[in-house]
Amino acid sequence: MRARLIVLVALATTGLACKSDPPATPPPTDETILEVLRPPVLTEAAVLPEQDARLIDVDVLEGSLVFTYDGPNARVPEVGAVVAGVRDGGYLRRVLAVDARSDRQFALTTEHAYLVDLFEDVHFRARFEPARGSWVETGVVGARSDALGGTFNLIDDLPISEQCGIAPGQNLEVKLELTPTFDAEIDVFRRTQRRMRVEVGGDVKVSVEAKSGAGIGINCEFEIPADRLPSREFTNVFFVGFVPVIVTHEIGAEVKFTAGASVSAGEVTGTAEGGFGFRVGVDYQQGVGWSPIGTANRFGSANLELTEQATATVTAGFEPGIAYTLKVYDAAGPEISLSPSVEGELTATLCTWEGTVTGAFTASLAPKLEVPVFDVSLLEVNFDLELFSGEIWTGGGTFPWCEDGGMEVDAGMPESDAGMPESDGGMETDPCAVHATCETCNRAEGCGFCRSSGQCTSDSRRGECGGDWLDEPNSCPDCSGFGSCDACVRNGFCGWCPGMGCLNDSTDAARMCAGYQPASCGG
Question: Whole-structure pTM over 0.70, yes or no?
Fold first, then answer.
């Protein structure tokens, strides 16, 4: 474990007390990992009304707040106060006027405030890993919690039949799966220096399956805009010291899809899958401005099945768009748009098939804040990052009726790996050896990549590895080529260790480094 202060905090708002008697730290949860580098110091104008035990309700409106207390003689925030809280979606406002509706209810006319109006000094980093049931689906009739945990399909119930006119004997299925993590860092030093960093990372996987019978064929192309698909929302409430902070994440999607299939006999089923492990974000530093953060690595596969000897073709392309927006309290933050695309092309002769999966991954970053969290004038600067473009996978296979001497060949295996060599002494070859790259190896169950030998082997053989053992996709990027701390931390998978240089976040060396710097240099 890294030698730094890590505090686990709850996704809850209970336990509030008056400012002079800070509430106890909420019970731990595995959703939020909070690292407080400097404890919070509030400005003289800052008020946390929810720490008043007499406050029983808050109604958050666009230009006002309505506070309801349990009786008369309550301590109502005065004009000029900067109030912050997490109830009813969260708020960070400056009080412009106070209207007493009764001796228990008060309407406060407000305007949006900035983080530097609340914090005189603070520096914290927070990592959010959504757990089961954390996501709420919005934009449809009613709302529901997503039961898929951290990984979910962004395009459930895609109306393919309606869009493509599916006939009997045809089938089209597409999926867009996202496993997100979020990182945010906010640094206000004596109100004169400001920094904000926001990153979204994880895995995005695109998969397409097309099935057709002889003489039927598939020819389909359509688009579904974002406003016709539901969005997902995920909210974190956590405490920096005794100060409650609320962060809201919203993710939406749109779809562009093409597919085609034909077969001369029998029935053909073609599948293509591609995806990216990624880390994308923006970093704002006073005096420097906005800088993009972006990196991605690829993985993918394809397969073609025929029920009898025939010639066949299957093509499929999927270009989803993913939009991510972050809010701190009720101030809208950076917008990040992700555009993964995957296209598969499979062809079959009477005995064999071959295919390719190509793709691209781009990110658009719009750091203009609708309601700035800092009191600075931000230019509308947009970044377009092309993180990957090219071949994700290539391979092929032989159909069962054409196997040589009864030896079965795995149709889903890349062509270069088909026909695995027998091991010495007749022993069975390690099943993980078919994976040629670190990325594909670490996405295979029970496999890990040994960097010293450059081979993929079963987890049970970890002890045979004489160098770094890599068992997760994000550990694959080689960070050793970055010669400075600044260049190192710009890569989303790397961090700087004084005396050792740039290390991958997922390695044992990084975990053992006492002064490890995964996101920024110094401090």
Answer: no
**Same-domain pairing of 59 and 196:** yes
- Report which DSSP code applies to 443: T
**Domain assignment of residue 517, yes or no:** no
Show which of 403, 427, 462 is a domain's final residue.
403
- In degrees and rounded to multiples of 5, residue 325 shows phi and psi of -130, 135
Same domain, 30 and 79: yes
Q: Write out the two tokens for 5.
A: 């202060």
**410 part of a folded domain:** no
472-494 per-position pLDDT tens digit = 767 777 787 788 888 887 776 78
30 DSSP 8-state letter: S
- Helix segments in 322-469, DSSP class H: 438-442
Per-residue pLDDT tens for 110-119?
998 888 889 9
Say how many domains are in the chain.
2
What range does the domain containing 4 cover? 1-403
Q: Are 370 and 453 within one domain?
A: no
Tell me what percent of the chain is helix, strand and coil, each rounded to the nearest 5.
10, 50, 40
Q: Three-state SS for 81?
A: coil
Cβ atoms within 10 A of the Cβ of 237, count? 20
Q: How far apart are CA 76 and CA 63, in angstroms?
A: 17
Beta-bridge mates of residue 194? 188
The pLDDT assigned to 3 comes to 25
Amino acid at 48: L
pLDDT for 521: 81
Same domain, 8 and 119: yes
Q: Is residue 371 located within the same domain as residue 501?
A: no
Q: In this predicted model, what pLDDT tens digit does every residue of 377-430 receive, in sequence order?
A: 555 667 888 888 899 888 888 888 876 543 333 434 333 343 333 334 333 468
Tokens 């110091």 found at: 41
What SS3 state is found at 428?
Answer: coil
Are 446 and 501 found together in one domain?
yes
If pLDDT is split at 50, 70 and 90, which confidence band does 19 have? Answer: very low
Query: Distance between CA 49 and CA 70 in Å, rounded?
Result: 13
